[in-house]
Amino acid sequence: xxxxKMSIVAILLLAVSFTNAxxxxxxxxxxxxxxxxxxKMTTMKSDVKAEVILSDYxxxxxxxxxxxxxxxxxxxxxxxASLKAFDAGSYSKEEKEELADxxxxxxxxxxxxxxxxxxxQREHFKTLSKxxxxxxxxxxxxxxxxxxxxxxxxxxSAWLSTSNEVKNPYYGSKMLKCGKVxxxxx
Length: 186
Description:
A hairpin with a 6-residue loop joins strand 1 (145-150) and strand 2. The protein contains five helices and three strands. It has helices at residues 2-29, 48-65, 69-85, 93-114, 118-139; strands spanning 145-150, 157-161, 180-185. It has one domain (48-185). It is 58% helix and 9% strand. Strands 2-1-3 form a three-stranded antiparallel sheet. By secondary structure, it is mostly helical.
């Protein structure tokens, strides 16, 4: 019954959002000679390349949770490719500059992960997680994400997850449940 109620609420929210979007579009399209420049529109919640980056990041996180150095290295390589493929063309000048810095740093950490032992992979994953969190703050996401935090790894370390269930990528099987959800990102 709870799932049914949640589904109904979700459908109603989608309907309201869709209706509001249609009204905005209608209002913006034809006000006299003012035309809407579609090339300048940013698509906050639907950046496909950012979603690919997130998917690759989560595969890397899961490999670290599973204590799998080889899979983590492969996921790191794949993440490097998706980061390099990211196109910030639809963002503002300030966002482009910030995204360029984030991507450059994230690529460096993903490259280290792709060629390191698991302890070193986890060290770089900490900074990479900060980069990906910063990226999501600009690009948005179509998913609900959970920023989780382990107080014990390196004086406290955060990571993103698609689940609110804590599975610690910094300690893996040693302390799988160490941590807590500190923020929900929608």
